[in-house]
Structures are given as structure tokens and as C-alpha cells.
Amino acid sequence: MCLAIPGKIVEILPGEYRSAVVEVAGVRRRVELGLIEDEHPAPGDWVLIHVGFAMSKISEQDAIDQMRMLALLGESEAAIEEVRGYSQ
Amino acid sequence: MPIVSARLVPRVRFKDPQIEMAHGAGGKASRRLVEGLFAPLLLDSREGPLGDAAHLRLGPTDLAVTADSFVVNPLTFPGGSIGELAVNGTVNDLAVAGARAEGLVTTFILEAGLPGDVLEAEVRAMARAARQAGVAILGGDTKVVEHGQADRMYITTTGIGRPLSGVTIDVRSVRPGDKVLLSGPVGDHGITILLARGGLDLEADLESDTRSVWPMVETLVDAAGAGVRWMRDPTRGGVATSLNELARDCGLGVSILEDDVPVHNAVRGACELLGLDPLHIANEGQFLAVVAPEHATAALRAVQSTPGGERACIIGEILPQPAGTVLAMTRYGASRVIDMLVGDPLPRIC
Amino acid sequence: MRFVDEFREPELIRKAAEEIRRLADPARRFRLMEVCGGHTHAIYRFGLKDVLPANVELIHGPGCPVCVLPMGRIDDGLSMAGRSDVILTAFGDMMRVPGTQGSPLQHKARGRDVRIVYSPMDALKLAQANPDTHVVFFAIGFETTAPSTALTMMRARAQGTRNFSVFCNHVTIVPAIRAILDSPDMRIDGFIGPGHVSTVIGCRPYEWIAADAGKPIVVSGFEPLDILQGIVMLLRQLEHGEARVENQYTRAVPWEGNRAALGVIAEVFELRPYFEWRGMGFISQSALRVNDRYADWDAERRFNVPGLRVTDPKAAQCGEVLKGVLKPAQCKLFGRECTPEHPVGALMVSSEGSCAAYYNYEHRKSPAVIDLASMA
């Protein structure tokens, strides 16, 4: 099952095994952090949740960069057309 | 293509070897059971598709009659309990048939071992809900079964109502161009029940939307009169199932704009986490109506100005094509089919 | 919802669709395969085929971990539920998958203890709460899910929970892609790579697809804009005759993968020498099994499973649909003998099955309606 959703860590839970309360659109769920301990997850971090486990941290910067690239789609072509026009 | 009548629908047969939870879920299996077994064998004569209530003519008097049973687990949950559902559910079935509920009779099946104070709490809840809905409880029956033969308590209510004059709820009067109205946010009840069962490690600020929809229906009919073609309360199986029943019964297409369907944030979040679709989740305090286009604005305003109806909206319209099908349109020019519920992701929610 | 809604923005979707139309040379026909069932589901759920030009064709790949299990494996799992002290647990997705004696849900209706869980940890907790029973977890999924199963088993061992075992049916994605490329009747121009599997295995395992098979592959996310951007990136490569591995899903997929996740897989599992995939025969090194260290938590060793090979009904064309040779509607049983209500094969009931996605979201749309949609 490839279903994985982004959620925000709101609280790290105490205990032998690392887990956290993660919030998705106002719904809180307990999620295991054992697979991403190396990334030192902390409250405020966004993670990808799959079958009750955090799979990776979501990079807000990469998301912003991606949105920027998406907004340019179609724009760059218009710019190229304009330049072509000038050189003729 | 000409408007196709309900005969578009292939005859439904019930040949299932055993009863499964899906038969109670309100979706395709339920339909097979009702239309393939109960209706042909039990109903005397039937013209047209089945509605939420039956009409009985006694001399000069027209009555609407309906029944509903409640097997919800757990008995109490945020926003309500089985007692309230038992009253509001039947009041609503009458309401969407265009009738004001006048009286209820109720039966209880109680499991030996059910604590007396639990029962009392539910009876009080029923009395309260009946008072709020303005309906009289006329009497009832009780049976007790051995411990383990019923899950604490099951309630059935039978309701009798007086049809409003000036309105005939008949799906065959639905026409292309008619608008589809929804009274408010969907999915609250089903998700609340699911979370109340525990064992899911999910927490949210949600409560059941159980309430009588009669006040909203009354103002709607007042404003739009004969322009109200069809109504339904989307309980088990959700809005998707009700709209599919509509499309199938009128032989036309239904198109909704998915972004326009109101959904509380937490319902959306829970559905995403669990792989559910809010359109398939049960509601206990909402209704759908199909209204003639010239009455749609007045109808919407009327419902919105009724307490509890503030989030009512027009979510779509009736199309000539594709017949018998419900489509959800996106804002970027794409669409998907919305089907009736298959299976039973949420058992025993009402 | 953050990181979801912005990737469903209608204006940006229109722009991406326009860019695809601009890039897709009308003289060419582009056949792109989305490997993962989650992508197939998203494509139909968001109506993305409506916004693609006719010469960009999406072929559905075999990336549905439930669909590729032969019916005999379902029977094996259900045989464990036959014992009175066993609770069989599985994800909701498994519940309506047909075995030869019915689906898990039908077994439940006949009185077997079969329960839905939303995480392997739920199954472990169930075992810990019910020490007089034995809880079996029917584990399915690609590399996305295997680490979670593995970590759960490590927890069971560490906590000394002995009344818990896993019936392991985890499969790996790369051999499936290799089988597609080796298939003589498949012509694929490029791949939309599996986004969530890649959060675990990273992007390196796909390098041979570009280097040896000469096909571009773009690892993509699952929102509409992710998929469309992935297609843009593929078309750009194809326009320039390139074949590279690219990562569209950078916000979630690290190029090197998740070392910890790969580590727990190695701790608990090992590769089976071969495993049978529905419709694709035996593929070597394509599935995981529990290793000797965790033998006590291996349901296959604790129970005697029938292990019978069950072939699909002759008329069913599950295998061909899985490989992308046939579209769902081209299977003779589609919509007739095989529907979500009475499925013949898992593809019609799994949330990642292409038949289910097509049936639920697409197949009753008439051309007249699609025109209507594009005018919106």
C-alpha cells in the first residue's frame, strides 16, 4: 500500500521507542519514529506517514522550490518566444 | 438522448449465499437485498422507485410511514447516542419524504446484563430528542435476549407523518438543469463513530451531526414548493450512495463540483489517514435536495437562514448524460465517476 | 492540508497540462508506464487522463503488491485463520481479495477471527493484549511497507512477545520493472518511478534502467502536480533523446534512500530465491521472507500452509493487465463477471489495482461528458 500522507509532529512522546503525536488536518495520530531517528525529528517537522510509521522528513524548502518551478511552466516558453521574435 | 425512465436499471436479483456486513452498509449489497428480496416478496404493488417513506391513503387522509433500526456501536459518542439517532433518524426519513413527523412507536431489543442506568440514559435521550423535534412517542415494545445474543441494545422506531401540501417528492419529476442542494458538511457522524470505537490511535475534535432536519426542509418547501423534486437523507453509504440512487432512479446524470462539497477539516484528515472517501461516510443530520433551477436561489437562501443550515450550498446539477451516473468535476477540466459504496468500511455506525 | 492542497492547485494543473501538450510532439506517440498502483489510482482519482493529449498514453504497471499475489498465497494466509486460537490481521485493502474459498471478509462472516489493522504495530499490540491467542499479521507491500513490518518484528523480539508472527508477502519493485523491460511485447518510452518505495530505496536502484535499457525514469510524488511534473520531465528527456534517472519528489525522497529503513529490512528479512507473481510467472530475487534469526516470528514456519499453486480462472486476464499489455476494460470479464462487488481477481478490489481504479472512477464517463469537462 503506497498510501502515505504528510503530517506535522506536534509532540514527541516519551518512551523506550521513539514515537510522536502527528497532526493531519486537525486529526492527531500516534506515529512511530524508529525509521527516521537519524534525521532527529522534532516538533514542527513535517513527516510522511505510512501505516503508522514516519518514512522521511518532508523538506519545506524543496516543496517551495518545486512550487516555484511549477509556476514557471508555460512562462519560460513565452519568454523564449519573445526572444525569438526580437532576433528575427 | 431522450430521458430514460427508471427502467434503465437492470432488474436486481438477490442470490447471495449468506448475509454479510456489506448488506447493512447502505451500498450496493444493501440495494440488492432490499430490491432483490424484500421488495418483490413483501411489497404488494409498487409503482416507481422506493423512497424514504411509504404513503398510505386512509379515506381522505394521506399519511407517510417509515421505520428504521439502530444498532450503533458504541452506544454513546461525541454529539449524541443511540437514543437520539433513533428519534432523529426516523424524523428525518419522514422529512425528506416531505412529511412532518407526528408520532413514533419504538421497540427495544435489550441484552440481559445491560446496566439499568445505561438504558435510562438512552430513554432520556430519546425523550429529549423527541421534544426537540416536536414529535410524540406513542408507545412501543420491549424484548430481552440472553447475554451475548444482542450487543447491549438495538432500537427500532416507526414513524407516522403528515405530508406537506403543495409538494410532491417524486424522483420522476427530476429534469436536466435542476440543481442539487446539500444542507451542510459531510462525514461528521461516521468518522465520529469510528474514532469513538477507539483502537485506531486517532483523535480529533469531531462530533456526530445528529439532529432533525425538519426545520430546514420546512423552510425549503416553503420557499420552493413544487420546485422541490426529490430529497434524501444521506445516512449509510453517504452522499455518493444517495446521489447514485438519484441518478439511477431518474435515469439522468448528476454532476457535482467536488471542491464545493463542504467537509470539516478533521473529517478530511481522518479520511486521508484511513483511505476513506468523505462522500461515502454516513451523516445523521444532513439532507440532499433536487430543486428546479428557477427556485434554486430562493431555496438555498431559505435553508441558509434556518438555524443549522448556514453551510448549505448548491453542489451540482442534473445532466442529461451520462445516464444513471454521478460525476465529480474538478476545477481544471477533469472528472471522475463517483460510485455507490461497495463493501462496508464502517460497520454499525447508526 | 499542507503539502497536499498546493499540489492540487487548478491553475497550476492547467499550466502543467499545457506544457505537456507543448512538449508532446504530435508526430510521436509517447508510452509512459507508471509502475506504482498508487500512481494509477491517483491518475484516475484526479481525472488526469482528461488533461493529457491523446498522444501521451499512460500504461499501468504491476506495482500493486496485493494484485500480484497469486490466489494460492491468499489461501495460505486464510488457512491460518482456520485455527480457533488464531486472529488473522491484515490491512483493509486485503479484506475483499478473493481466495478460492472466498475473501478474508467472507471468512470473517463465517465466524473466523479476521480483523483489519492500520499498522503492523496494531497487530503486535493485539497479540500483547490477548496472550491466549496467536496473532498473525498478513504482511503485504513493496519496500515502502517492509521496514514497518521489520521494525514491528524487532519490537516483538525485544519485548519477548511470542504469540505473534508475520506471513510475509513483501515484494520488491526493481525485478518487476526488469520483467516489464524484458517482455518482448512491451514498448515503453519512459517510467514514472514509484515515489514512496523510493523514500526507502532511493533513486540509485533505477540507474540500470537509464544506463542499460536506455529509458528515462522520473521518481514522482502522488499529487496531480507531482504526476504531471513527472511527465513534463520525462517528455523533456525524450525530446532531447536523453535517458536519466531524475527525482521529481525531492521533498520526500532522498537520493540515497533511508539507511535506517534498509537496515531493519536486512535485520529481519532475506530475499527469496524466487517468488511467483500473478501473470508474470516466477521472478528471481523478487520477494522477501523472514530470515532464520526471526524464525520464531515467521508464520510460514509456525503453520503448515497448503502452499498450493492456484492458477487464475482461464478467462481472467489479470496477468496481462498487470503487465500493461491489456487495459482493464479490455479484459473479457471486466464489468461483467468481475466487478468490485464480486471480483474475480485482486485488481478489482485493491486500492492500487488498475481495474478497481478504472471501474470506480472512469469507465462510465462518456466522450460527451469529457468534452463538457474541458469547457469548465
Short description:
The complex is a heterotrimer of chains A (88), B (350) and C (376). Chain A has helices spanning 60-72, 75-87, and strands at residues 5-13, 19-24, 27-32, 46-50, 53-57. In chain A, strands 3-2-1-4-5 form a 5-stranded antiparallel beta sheet, with no helix packed on it.
Q: What is the CATH C-level name of the largest domain in chain B?
A: Alpha Beta
Could you give the order of strands across the largest sheet of chain B?
Answer: 10-12-8-13-11-14-15
Q: How many β-strand stretches of chain B?
A: 15
N-to-C terminal Cα separation of chain A, in Å?
Answer: 54 Å
Strand content of chain A: 35-45%
Q: Name the average pLDDT of chain A.
A: 86
Here the CATH topology of the largest domain in chain B equals Phosphoribosyl-aminoimidazole Synthetase, Chain A, domain 2
The percent range for helix content of chain B is 25-40%
Which quaternary structure do these chains form? heterotrimer
Low-confidence stretches of chain A: none
The largest interface is: A-C, 38 and 56 residues
Report the β-strand fraction of chain B as a percent range: 25-35%
Q: What's the helix count of chain B?
A: 8
- Output the number of helix runs of chain A: 2
The arrangement of helices and strands of chain B along the chain is HEEEEHEHEEEHEHEHEHEHEEE
Unreliable runs of chain B, pLDDT <50, ≥5 residues? Answer: 1-9
Look at the structure and name the CATH superfamily of the largest domain in chain B: PurM-like C-terminal domain
Average pLDDT rating of chain B = 91
- What is the succession of H and E elements of chain A? EEEEEHH
**End-to-end Cα distance of chain B:** 40 Å
Which sheet architecture does the biggest sheet of chain A show?
5 strands, antiparallel
